[in-house]
Design goal:
Layout (H helix, E strand, L loop, with lengths): L2 H17 L4 H16 L3 H14 L5 H15 L2 H12 L6 H17 L2 H18 L4 H12 L9 H10 L3 H7 L1 H21 L11 H4 L3 E7 L2 E8 L4 H13 L4 H12 L5 H22 L3 E2 L10 H35 L1 H10 L5 H16 L4 H23 L3 H15 L7 H9 L6 H24 L2 H9 L2
Antiparallel strand pairs: 1-2, 1-3
Helix pairs in contact: 1-2, 1-16, 1-17, 2-3, 2-16, 3-16, 4-7, 4-15, 4-16, 5-6, 5-13, 6-7, 6-8, 6-11, 7-8, 7-21, 8-11, 8-22, 9-19, 10-23, 11-22, 14-15, 16-19, 18-19, 18-20, 19-20, 20-22, 21-22
């Protein structure tokens, strides 16, 4: 069978199954059964398919579960609510205020969770119900959450960046550092888009005054040890509103960067492997949450929800992590076997050879790589995309490095941004379905897709900027050499 016919057959099976309402994982399984029967030795391939599912789940995927657990610990203990409440109070009269809070909060949690799915799930669970209750339109409520969720792929610690650098045998530290500036640039552009659009059309995000009475209250500081008060004072001066805005961020946001330092520092200084660093991040999350429990009565700030660190919260964090991680592993296992079916059918090799046969310049080769990733990202998870394309891309990148002096770290940043875009690409972008899962029942998948489109365009703009101005990604890593 010709490669393009095999490609159309397998993709058509997945699309048809999705159109009929089958879950993503089972849509891949349906295509796997067909592809395995046709292209992997018939009955023998079907018998071996469970073994392929087992082999698809590798130890290299452990950081994803651990980074997800980090986020769930912060969510279930209430520390996430404290941090988001502090950011909410810090951001004052801005059009689309809660959408802006989601961008700021998402950027902070990107530096903690390292998981795009965890980032989107947490922000969607915490902020989306409040935005919908206040009359925010779905396009301005869901779009920023999905878009900023993808930033976790760039801002360290990024599980996918660690996996990519490891497979490419490049510096993990340099790739993590290289993602910082593009990630922050995206966050700034998201912020500008939301503020500008809500300023032009206020009906998208009805304005409301945030806790005016709370901001006017005195700031109470008290030190309690074993139920005994050792210090108590109150500040009710003329700057109490400013203090009430800034103090919660100092108390509840700054300590979270301890987790960032533990994870990124242990990787950067080669004190721990990525999986070990993720485990250390979970321990640091537990430590920060326990510190909040010990000192939650030390400084009283009205209107900020308290943390509740107990065994019940930890058990719930483990349970929620298990649920989400099981879904991820099912999708990854299904799509990895799907990738093998594509490869055995000749569709993958035919497509890549067709591109390689063209007489292209270095810039054209890079752009073609990005187009291939965008295409694959419409129906495949990011791990599968890496495993499928990286051998070909590495050969191409080595040739480009020798002939044209192309920076491989820059190329990998482009790949990360492209895969970030693919998370939002219809019809099977993973974050679209994560958002659909946490959104109210009456929100349709079409609304989710329409909410993501403007942010896909912004991410494409950043990708184009990095293609023509590589220094945006390469400048910071070079400062560390």
């Amino acid at each position: 069978m010709e490669w393009y016919l095999a490609l159309a057959l397998l993709l058509g099976t997945v699309c048809t199954a999705m159109f009929l309402g089958l879950p993503v994982a089972f849509a891949f399984f349906a295509a796997n059964v067909l592809g395995t029967a046709l292209f992997i030795n018939g009955d023998i391939g079907l018998v071996l398919m469970p073994l392929e599912f087992h082999n698809a789940i590798k130890f290299t995927l452990a950081p994803i579960a651990l980074f997800l657990l980090m986020g769930e610990i912060l969510l279930q203990t209430g520390v996430a609510f404290k941090a988001i409440g502090a950011i909410d109070r810090l951001i004052a009269r801005v059009p689309g205020r809660l959408a802006v809070v989601s961008i700021a909060g998402g950027t902070v949690f990107s530096s903690l969770s390292g998981s795009t799915i965890a980032n989107t799930a947490i922000l969607g669970s915490v902020l989306l119900p409040d935005m919908m209750k206040r009359g925010y339109q779905p396009s301005i409520a869901m779009g920023p959450i999905m878009a900023v969720g993808g930033i976790a792929m760039l801002i360290p610690p990024s599980a996918l960046a660690v996996l990519l650098a490891s497979l490419a045998e490049q510096s993990v530290a340099q790739l993590l550092i290289a993602g910082i500036v593009p990630g922050i640039l995206m966050a700034v552009l998201f912020f500008g888009y939301v503020v500008g659009r809500c300023a032009i059309n206020p009906e998208l995000a009805p304005a409301y005054e945030a806790e005016t009475d709370v901001l006017d209250q005195a700031v109470t500081i008290s030190l309690n040890v074993r139920g005994r008060s050792w210090l108590s004072c109150s500040y009710a001066g003329r700057y109490r509103r400013a203090v009430n805005r800034i103090l919660p961020s100092v108390l509840y946001v700054m300590p979270l960067f301890v987790i960032f330092v533990v994870v990124v520092g242990s990787i950067f200084f080669k004190l721990a492997a990525p999986t070990e660093a993720a485990a250390l991040g979970c321990v640091a999350s537990l430590g920060v949450c326990y510190a909040f429990r010990m000192f939650r009565k030390t400084i009283q700030v009205s209107g900020i929800e308290g943390a509740d660190f107990n065994w019940r919260a930890i058990a719930k964090a483990l349970l929620e992590t298990t649920k989400i991680n099981t879904m991820i592993l099912f999708i990854i296992a299904g799509s990895l076997v799907f990738s093998q079916a594509l490869s055995n059918s000749g569709a993958t090799q035919g497509l890549l050879q067709y591109i390689a046969a063209m007489d292209l310049t270095a810039l054209t080769v890079v752009i073609m790589m990005m187009l291939v990733l965008l295409f694959l990202g419409a129906f495949m998870d990011q791990v599968s995309m890496l495993l499928l394309t990286l051998p070909f891309f590495l050969l191409s990148s080595q040739s480009l490095q020798i002939v044209f002096n192309i920076d491989v770290i820059w190329l990998m940043v482009l790949m990360l941004i492209t895969m970030e875009i693919s998370l939002l690409t219809p019809p099977f972008g993973l974050l679209l379905y994560v958002m659909k899962g946490v959104a109210p029942f009456d929100v349709t998948l079409g609304q989710v897709v329409r909410a993501a489109l403007p942010f896909i365009l912004i991410e494409l703009m950043v990708l184009i900027l990095l293609i023509f101005v590589p220094e945006v990604a390469t400048w910071l890593p070079k400062q560390l050499e």
